[in-house]
């Protein structure tokens, strides 16, 4: 795991002013980070630290103010075809007027994959996410967890080198969330892709990752990178009960807590009791 797949090199992002009295919002200040081939890297940090901003920049959806992102040594200047994205809001990422199969096929069609190959990949990816046979249904006929599986199936079918996921499980119930976490680990095993993941859930970060990068408060830098020292094979019950799991969890919580002091919100207003 030593080849660098993605190099995030001195990224700085300031959103432009939104009015005459606004001087712009500096969100990212000098983010430098290598993501290695085949690893699962999770980014955590205080609320509003710029995690989504960073992911969107890495995915080529947002232009950095300065700095660059390199994929296999080549500068990213728009959404590269080697990257697939999964967002939190599956209801907006799937087209409700298209069947599940058509939703999955869409990016493949756009990249000129032939009909027979598309059919094969749609079927295989639905099977991989445990949704064999639902291709003809529409997204709105499925539960939230099933819709997020479809979004993951679409990403898998695309066979990306890099998968970028922004809080993909934030809107599903706890049991579904655990199932989807395990699904993602199985997918990673099969696809050998590189994963860049954002979550608010520290336990989820430890459970899934090879490394966890903690962002500081805005304007953010990388505060700390933690190597997750857990057996490769993860299990919801056994892995989470390991002493090393608690140690990593405590280190990440402690680091984030030290970044966010109660005084960040200013003095307590009188009307709060
Ligand atoms: N388009 C925009 N224009 C101006 N400011 C923005 C824009 N998008 C985000 N911001 C600001 O940038 C900061 C970081 O937002 P971002 O969503 O990247 O953080 P985050 O760490 O993902 O947040 P959260 O933890 O709440 O998910 C916030 O202060 C936000 O208000």
From TrEMBL:
The lineage of its organism: Bacteria, Bacillati, Actinomycetota, Actinomycetes, Actinomycetales. It comes from the Bacteria. Coiled coil: none annotated. The keyword Nucleotide-binding applies. Residues 6-242 form the ABC transporter domain. InterPro entries: AAA+_ATPase, ABC_transporter-like_ATP-bd, ABC_transporter-like_CS, ABC_transporter_ATP-bind, P-loop_NTPase. PANTHER family: ALIPHATIC SULFONATES IMPORT ATP-BINDING PROTEIN SSUB (PTHR42788:SF13), TAURINE IMPORT ATP-BINDING PROTEIN-RELATED (PTHR42788). The keyword Transport applies. It holds the Pfam family ABC_tran. It comes from Flaviflexus salsibiostraticola. Keywords: ATP-binding, Nucleotide-binding, Transport. Transmembrane segments: none annotated. GO terms for molecular function: ATP binding; ATP hydrolysis activity. This is ABC transporter ATP-binding protein.
């Amino acid at each position: 795991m030593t080849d660098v797949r993605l190099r995030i090199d001195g990224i700085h992002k300031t959103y432009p002013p939104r009015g005459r009295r606004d001087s712009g919002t500096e969100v990212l200040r000098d983010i430098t980070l290598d993501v290695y081939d085949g690893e699962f890297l999770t980014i955590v940090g205080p609320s509003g630290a710029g995690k989504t901003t960073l992911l969107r920049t890495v995915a080529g959806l947002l232009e950095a103010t300065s700095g660059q992102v390199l994929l296999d040594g080549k500068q990213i200047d728009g959404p590269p075809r080697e990257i697939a994205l999964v967002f939190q809001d599956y209801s907006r990422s799937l087209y409700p007027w298209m069947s599940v199969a058509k939703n999955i096929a869409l990016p493949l069609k756009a990249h000129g994959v032939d009909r027979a190959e598309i059919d094969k990949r749609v079927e295989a990816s639905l099977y991989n996410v445990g949704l064999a046979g639902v291709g003809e249904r529409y997204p709105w006929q499925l539960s939230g967890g099933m819709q997020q599986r479809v979004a993951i199936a679409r990403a898998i079918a695309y066979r990306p080198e890099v998968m970028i996921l922004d809080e993909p499980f934030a809107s599903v119930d706890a049991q579904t969330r655990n199932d989807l976490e395990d699904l993602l680990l199985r997918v990673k095993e099969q696809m050998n892709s590189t994963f860049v993941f954002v979550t608010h859930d520290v336990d989820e970060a430890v459970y899934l990752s090879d490394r966890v990068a903690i962002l500081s408060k805005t304007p953010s830098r990388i505060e700390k990178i933690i190597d997750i020292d857990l057996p490769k094979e993860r299990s919801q019950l056994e892995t989470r009960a390991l002493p090393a799991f608690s140690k990593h969890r405590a280190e990440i919580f402690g680091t984030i807590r030290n970044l966010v002091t109660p005084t960040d919100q200013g003095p307590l207003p009188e009307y709060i009791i």
